[in-house]
Predict the 3D structure of the following.
Amino acid sequence: MIKGNILVIDDELQIRKLLGITLQSNGYKVLTASTAKEGLVMAANLQPDMIVLDLGMPDESGHAVLVKLREWYIKPIMILSVQNSEEDIVKCLDNGANDYLAKPFRTGELLARIRTALRSAAMADNAPVIQYKTFGIDLAARSVKINNEILKLTATQYSLLALFAKNEGKVLTHQHILKEVWGPDYTSQLQYLRVFIAQLRKKIERNPDKPEFIVTESGIGYRFVAVD
């Protein structure tokens, strides 16, 4: 059974071959493009379930391709690139990338992140109730339960957790979280965000000092990890 169609946009032949073999052997159908122009055309015509995009394309910057894709493409986009500066990562995430993995990469990590991105997209489309290892979120009822008991959260704590749940596996930048939860006037209030993250971890993590769910991406933001 095909788990999904993945479009790989990368100018390196060896990377396209490696991803083709790896993804096909794990149940995905792989489509490949070697230029930005070809990738944009294939994305529009074939509507893949996910796109893996390199930043160093020969005919156009991968950053520009990402911006163009996000004008209409709503499914997951993962950046796979040797460009791994904090500035590049934050720019991609702020422009709508779901994840960022630097080359060279570990195959197991790549597959785990692809599974997470596709599962998160499916949940967003189909599931008002999201169940995790130790707790569940009912997005329609705006409630959270641990062991079938309602977890008491403030409105802000719930909004923060719901934002993470809707973006499972995706790295959210500090500025994006602050803007979505508190508004555009709070995008520089990093200490404010850290306080609320600490509060939320105390309520949902078994060990807040070693969080399983809300993982810090140093200098960038946070990632919500469900199972992988």
User: Anything to note?
Assistant: Residues 107-126 form the longest helix (20 residues). Helices lie at 13-25, 36-46, 62-69, 86-94, 107-126, 155-166, 174-181, 190-204. Residues 127-224 form a domain with the Arc Repressor Mutant, subunit A fold (CATH 1.10.10.10).
